[in-house]
Queue: 2 jobs
Job 1
Amino acid sequence: MRRFGLCFLVLGGCLSNPSVEVDRQSVDMPAGTSSNVTVSIDGSPVEDYSEVLWLVEDPGMVTVAPAWDGKHLRIGGNIEGTTTVHINSHGQTFDVKAHVGPPALVKMWIEPEVVATNVGGAVQVKAIAVDTLFHIVDVTHTSRWTVRDPDVATLDMNGMMLRAAAEGLTTLHATNGESSTVVPITILK
């Protein structure tokens, strides 16, 4: 009878699965970036990903790998679209929807870096940016432009010509989404 009870305890312990959780049901990221997902077993973040399997429906769209900290799965967005990452551990499967949007701007600048001209003169300007895919893009016509002191200079949006109206100092600002930049303007006699 003791052996039967001991076998029942041993088998019972083998048949119970730990509790598995994934902290996110979806991730949304610009192309060229990544997002972390935490997988927990019995309330503790996984540190040994040999216990976790994953499958991506469209592996060209996103990639999945353990993050450098060892406590997260990193889902990286390669190309725009939506796919599903299936995460499995101890017989439990979780679906994480992954949406990859267009690349986001990382850094933006105005060319030329300094605008200097005489009253009545004109200088052509443009806005350039680097995105999360490391592409250099012209964002001149998709940016919002302002001149701090329109009495000193104005911007003709059609030809992107900054026209000097009066002697003085001001600044030219360009904003595109969450990126922005500014250059000084010097107008001489």
Job 2
Amino acid sequence: MLRRLRLGNLRTLCRHRYGPTLPDDDAGRADLRELLLPISVSANAAVRMPKAIELWAPWMGQQEAIQLIDDINRTPIRRRKPNGKVLGERLQVTNAQREQLKLWTIAACDMSEEEAQEWRKAKNRERSRRRRQLRGAKPQASSTSRAKPWLDLGMSRASWYRRETDSCAELKTTRIYPHFGETDSYEIKLIEAEHESVSPEQAPPPKKGRTVQLAQTMKTNTPTKVQKPKPQRPASGDATDEQRTNLSQQGRIEHGLQVMLDILTDYLGNAATRTEWLVEIQKHFTGRNRKLRYGWSDDRIDARIRKLEAMGLITGGRGLGLSYSAVEHAQPGTPALARTAPVKESFRDVLTAAKLQLLNRGKSSAA
């Protein structure tokens, strides 16, 4: 890798000094020898060296080229690989040429090792400075620590920074809350009629010291509206008579129960076992991804069936092979277990009959 980089640097230097071909003089022959040294230690050197001579020194004769190649082959390998300092002294490469042509494998002849090290450090500092400048960093010469503005104001460094912090916080609060610190009528909600808005100029000054008792400073938590007691849910799954009466008075059924009754009457002909009813319900609530919708598991459906039984909207079931059916409007002298809605009757009529039955039951219980 180093050999290829050095060969490229030598070609760049020769092209910069002489052009496409080397001159027919001692300097040209010396530079041609330096150009052939890295080629002699590469693969196929016997073929590449004559081609390099033909390219860089077309004026050289065949006998002279053969002698030059033989002389290079007789040179020891360690001498064919000089370090950068030795090569820079042979070719007289200055630091300006090295930086201009980027000859990084050749050391400058006009600088010592210490000077070259200081030069590299200076370049690294300049490179880092440009990188920080591109990122948006400010130079240290214009920083606050170098300027020391607190000396001109006659205050300490900590006081100056504290004042700047307070100013920044106040400016940020003003931008976010434009009316911060003002007492306007639309900013305060009056809870009682005797409360009035007071401007900052009319407010009394605060008392010095902590003479006010804690009980006086704390505000009483007065509720603004009456809280209604939350209804308690019964522990058992069966509804009580009072809940049935309330449901009959309200005259409405939950959406899930209505959907189950609709499936039982329209899709299953108002006669289906628990398994048939459950499969048909889950079929309607299964998406394209074959996942059952939340709230329609076997346990939830069984809970809704028990609720429908408690409400008196369905009858039957409660056994292997027994079918459920919706209850129609109550007829005089007919037991409730024998009342089943005909298949051709619409679900709206069945639901209306069930509501009327619940209303009649609620009136009879109230009497």
